Amino acid sequence: xxxxxxxxxxxxxxxxxxxxxxxxxxxxxxxxxxxxxxxxxxxxxxxxxxxxxxxxxxxxxxxxxxxxxxxxxxxxxxxxxxxxxxxxxxxxxxxxxxxxxxxxxxxxxxxxxxxxxxxxxxxxxxxxxxxxxxxxxxxxxxxxxxxxxxxxxxxxxxxxxxxxxxxxxxxxxxxxxxxxxxxxxxxxxxxxxxxxxxxxxxxxxxxxxxxxxxxxxxxxxxxxxxxxxxxxxxxxxxxxxxxxxxx
Length: 247
Known about the structure:
The protein is mostly helical. It has 13 helices and no strands.
């Protein structure tokens, strides 16, 4: 059976042709379509990293959504394949997060929070009052900024754990509506701002959001802790948002 669709050689038309072949049982064609569109999965996964799940886990789920898009797409649709695939990839990841129903926190953060609670209890027993940040930092042998980050992380986890399913979905699954033109402007502004950053800040952003590395991978590469990467990343992103708004 031959495809009734005519092609003039463009990339999108080639993708449509390969999808038709994939749906006819050609595994090599399916692998080609997936590999050519894998950037969609990486881009979408980066938007869900705040859920605490490992990048690799979300990436695998996103790939499943992309494969489903290949299987279900009708090449006669008057839309680009990527336009059709994006909501399926997002839907697959959201379904996984809803079904899993757990709050994921990295091992370093868990260990840090546990260490924080032990120090708080020890100092409270010793002085009969809530400890100061400086006292916690001394006992935990950490910088005061890192102690503050753990306190904030513990508060955030506790708050999320106390929420019902609807409230959690509002946090994890609400997607801001941004036009394509706004995205282009933001990307141009972002690249300009990144080029002026301190070297380590620039490395963290590039490795995390352009090289798709996990916080632990970045920490290993830069020879710092995952907690430090997380704290620095949060600070840098906050600065980036402020500068983009000003721009």
